[in-house]
Amino acid sequence: MAATITERGRVDKRQAILDAAFTVFARRGYARACVQEIAEVAGVAKPTVYNHFTDKDTLFRHALTAAADAVLATNLALVDRLRDPHPPLPTALADLAYRLAEGCCDERSRALRWLTYSQVAQSPDLIDKVLSRTADRLGDALADRFARLALAGRVRIADPARAAEHFLVLITGPLEGRSRLGTRPVPPADLRAVTTAAVDTFLAAYRTPDEER
Question: For 55-206, which CATH class?
Answer without folding.
Answer: mainly alpha
